[in-house]
């Protein structure tokens, strides 16, 4: 099946610094990628939808200036947490799909654990 | 708007027994897909089973089957012959089929604990 790779799997950063998480589709062109955030024992909350070559669409309540999403190519989307604070510590996971497809055509990355100290 | 409801925060089952995880949904889309994922403590999302709203038969994948009752808007996951490795969090999710590039919307999840 299709493979989505997410990097890094684990990251620890200091308060005030920025951290970038990459999401790559390895064997298909992902025209649309999604970023989710998950707190322990809770559900996955959609943060934003990004389409290749255009600005991301953020969900209500998600700060677009804090969570910068770039989808510069058909195989790569990045999430940058800017000026990170301890409350940004969370599990971030991406998924990818091929635009125009339906059904079971969503593929997840492995997720990234972010700890801000 | 779409909504997924999972009312069981936790479920406990013994090895080799069957267990049903409940999921109800609400949507105004005439065509939609329903998914179940398993999430172990490592965090990865493991796809288990998919049901399209117009599929005539209930989906099955090995020990997993989906009890799809469209009129009741329910899509319960049945795991037969539970194994210790089935202990994890399970999420029900859906997306509209005719909306290209739409994200999955998830329920709150059910934590399944399998004991020996």
What's the layout of helices and strands?
The complex is a heterodimer of chains A (117) and B (116).
Chain A: E1 4-7, E2 10-13, E3 19-25, E4 32-38, E5 44-51, E6 57-58, E7 67-73, E8 76-81, E9 90-97, E10 106-108, E11 112-116
Parallel strand pairs in A: 2-11
Antiparallel strand pairs in A: 1-3, 3-8, 4-5, 4-9, 5-6, 7-8, 9-10, 9-11
Chain B: E1 3-5, E2 10-14, E3 19-21, E4 24-26, E5 32-39, E6 46-52, E7 60-61, E8 64-69, E9 74-79, E10 88-96, E11 105-106, E12 110-115
Parallel strand pairs in B: 2-12
Antiparallel strand pairs in B: 1-4, 3-9, 5-6, 5-10, 7-8, 8-9, 10-11, 10-12
In short:
The complex is a heterodimer of chains A (117) and B (116). Chain A is mainly β and 117 residues long.
What does this structure look like?
- The complex is a heterodimer of chains A (117) and B (116).
- Chain A contains no helices and 11 strands.
- With 117 residues, chain A is mainly beta.
- Helix content of chain A is 0%, strand content 52%.
- Chain A is globular, with a radius of gyration of 13 Å.
- In chain B, the strands form 3 sheets. In chain B, strands 2, 5, 6, 10, 11 and 12 form a 6-stranded mixed beta sheet that branches. In chain B, strands 3-9-8-7 form a 4-stranded antiparallel beta sheet, with no helix packed on it.
- Chain B has strands spanning 3-5, 10-14, 19-21, 24-26, 32-39, 46-52, 60-61, 64-69, 74-79, 88-96, 105-106, 110-115.
- The chains are: A mainly beta (117), B mainly beta (116).
- The A-B interface holds A 31-32, 34, 38, 41-44, 46, 49, 51, 91, 93, 95, 97, 99-104, 106, 108, 110-111, 113 and B 31, 33, 35, 43-45, 47, 50, 52, 89, 91, 95, 97-98, 100-101, 103-109, 111.
């Amino acid at each position: 099946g299709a493979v989505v790779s997410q990097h890094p799997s684990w990251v620890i950063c200091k308060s005030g610094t920025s951290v970038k998480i990459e999401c790559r589709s390895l064997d298909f062109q992902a025209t649309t990628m999604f970023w989710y955030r998950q707190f322990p024992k809770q559900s996955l909350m959609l943060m934003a939808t990004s389409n290749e070559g255009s600005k991301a669409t953020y969900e209500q309540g998600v700060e677009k200036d804090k969570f910068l999403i770039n989808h510069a190519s058909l195989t790569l989307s990045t999430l940058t947490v800017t000026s990170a604070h301890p409350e940004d510590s969370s599990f971030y996971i991406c998924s990818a799909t091929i635009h125009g497809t339906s059904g079971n055509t969503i593929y997840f990355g492995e997720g990234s654990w972010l700890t801000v100290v | 708007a779409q909504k997924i409801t999972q009312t069981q925060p936790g479920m406990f089952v013994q090895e080799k027994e069957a267990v049903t995880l409940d999921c109800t949904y609400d949507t105004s889309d005439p065509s939609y897909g329903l998914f179940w994922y398993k999430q172990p403590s490592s965090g990865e999302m493991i796809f288990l089973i998919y049901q399209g709203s117009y599929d005539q038969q209930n989906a099955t994948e090995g020990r997993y089957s989906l009890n799809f009752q469209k009129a009741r808007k329910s899509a319960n996951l049945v795991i037969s012959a539970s194994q210790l490795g089935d202990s994890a969090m399970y999420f029900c999710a859906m997306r509209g089929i005719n909306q290209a590039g739409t994200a999955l919307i998830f329920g709150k999840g059910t934590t399944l604990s399998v004991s020996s």
